[in-house]
Amino acid sequence: MAIDGDQQSVVExxxxxxxxxxxxxxxxxxxxxxxAYAPTAYDNLEIAPxxxxxxxxxxxxxxxVVDLPRVPKLTHVLGPSAxxxxxxxxxxxxxxxxxxxxxxxxxxxxxxxxxxxxxxxINTEIQRWxxxxxxxxxxxxxxxxxxxxxxxxVLGFVxxxxxxxxxxxxxxxxxxLGIESTFTLFGHEFLGWKAYGILLMMLIxxxxxxxxxMYNVVERVTAVLVASSALCALALFVLVGDPGELANIPVGxxxxxxxxxxxxxxxxxxxxxxxxxxxxxxxSQSLWIREKGYGMGRYQGRVLNPIVGDEPEVIHRDGFxxxxxxxxxxxxxxxxxxxQLEHLVTFVLGVLVTATAMMAIAATYVTATDAGGVEMWxxxxxxxxSPLAGALLYGVLFLALFTTEYAIVESVVRNSADVxxxxxxxxxxWSLPRIxxxxxxxxxxxGILILxxxxxxxxxxxxxxxxxxxxxxxxxxxxxxxxLINTRRLPEHTQPGWPRIVAMWWATAFFGYFSVLLVxxxxxxxxxxDAFRVTIGVTGSAPGGLALFVVLAITxxxxxxxxxxxxxxxxxxxxxxxxxxxxxx
Length: 585
Description:
Layout: H1 5-14, H2 26-30, E1 64-65, H3 74-77, H4 80-104, H5 109-133, H6 137-144, H7 147-160, H8 164-177, E2 182-185, E3 188-191, H9 192-207, H10 214-240, H11 249-253, H12 265-273, H13 284-292, E4 320-321, H14 326-365, H15 373-381, H16 387-425, H17 432-452, H18 461-488, H19 498-525, H20 543-570
Parallel strand pairs: 1-4
Antiparallel strand pairs: 2-3
Helix pairs in contact: 4-10, 4-12, 4-14, 4-16, 5-13, 5-14, 5-18, 5-19, 7-16, 7-18, 8-9, 8-16, 9-17, 10-14, 10-16, 12-18, 12-19, 16-17, 18-19, 18-20, 19-20
C-alpha cells in the first residue's frame, strides 16, 4: 500500500511493517476532502457481544462489528473545526471578550485562554463517542435516557432561536455602508437594516440547495468566511492596533483567579461559553465529524438534500464497534491524534489569534464603556479610525457576525433534526434528510418573521447576552454526562485516559461554578429573591445561594467518583490496550 512521506516516517519510527495498514493511501485519503462514506452490508455484520471489549448498549440495541477505517492525513480531513471556529467568531472573539477586556483590562485574559483549552477538551470528548461507534453524541445521551436529547434540544432552541446574529450583522453592514433608510411593509415602517437581515437569512437557506450533500457547502462557505474574517482582523490590528498592548498579555494570562464584579457575571459566563462556539453548538462537533467520515462515522450514513440530490443513504440508528486487534487499536490511536490535531490547528489557534487581535484593538481605543459589544465597536472605536480602517472594522464585524449566524443555523438545524428523528421520526417512518430540510426552512422562516415584526430589536446585544449565558449554563450538565458516558460505556482501549478525565473534572467544575453564579444572580436580580444571593467567594452567599453551591459540590463529587470507578474497573480488561494509547488519550 502506498503511503505519503509523513506517514512513512511514522511507520519507519515504529519499525513494524504491519503499521503500513494503519494509514490510508493518498487515493483513499483524498476521499475525505469532501466527505467519506463506506456503505456496509449492515444486517450481515456480526453483532458485537456484550463484554468488556465493546461499548455498553445501555437503553439501546446492539452494535455491529467492523474494522476501524485507515487513518488519512490531516490535510484531508480539515473542516469540521472550521465550522466551530465560525460559530465562535461573531460571539466570543469579536463581542464578549473585547468588551470584557475593555471593561476590566487584561487581568481577565487568563479566563479566555483557559476557556479555549477547556472547550478543546470538551469538544474532542464529544467527538470520542462518534469516532468509536459512528453514533452521534445525542444517540449516546439517548442510550442513558431518552429525555436527555430532548432537554438539550429545548435549551438549544431557547438559546439560539432568536436571529440575533443575523440582525446584528445586518445592522453593522447597513451602518458601514450608510444605507440605514426605512421601508414600509404591511403598513408598518421598518429600519432598512432589517431588510438586509432578511436577505442574509434567505442567502443561508439558499446555499443549502447548491449541493446534494448539505454538509459540504456549509464547510466550504464557512471556511471562506472564517479565513476572510481572520485575515481582516489581523490586517486591522496592523493598521490601528497598539503593539504595546500585546505586552500586557503575559501578565493577564497569568492573573489566574481574577474575576470581574458580580454585575458582570452574565457577560463573563457568556464569554466563557463563547471562548468557543458554546452551548448547543459544541454538540454539533459530533455530527460534523460523522458527516465528514471520521473513524466509525464513515459507516453511519450522511444527510443528503432531499430536494437536490441523489438517492438517500441509510442512516443507521445503532452504531458500530471494532474488535480490539492490534491493527484496529493502532488505527484508533491515529484517529484520536488526528481529531485532536485538526481541532487544535483549526479551532484553538484560530480562536486565540483572532480574538487576541480584536481584544488588543478594543483595549487601544476603549478604557471603560457601558455599551454593548457591538455598540462599543460602532461608537467607541469606529469614529476614531481612518476611512480605510473604519471600513475594515465594519468588514470584520459583518463577516464574523454573519459567519456565526450561518454556523448557528447549521448547528441548531442539524442537532435538532437528529434528536427529532431518533426520538419520534424513525419509528414513524420519517426521513432524516426531510426533517433536516423542513427544520432548515422553518428556522430560516422564523428568523425572517421575527425581523418583519414591528418589535424593537435595534439593540440586540441583550439578546446575545442572554443566549450566551444560557449556553454557558447548558454546558455544565452535558459536560458531566459526556464524561460519564465515555468512561462508563466505552471499553478500555477507547476510554479517555487519566489526564483527560482530570481535565473533564475541571471542565465540569468550571462551568458548574459559573452556572451557579448566573442562576443565583438571576434569582436575586430578576425575581427579587435575595435568599439566593451568591458571591464569587461563596462564603458570603445567602442560604439559598449556599444551597446552590452544595448542589454543585454534590454533583461534582458524584461525577468524579463515578468516572474514576469506571476507569479503575476497566483497567486491564482488554488485552494489549496500551496499543491504543497516544498523546493526551
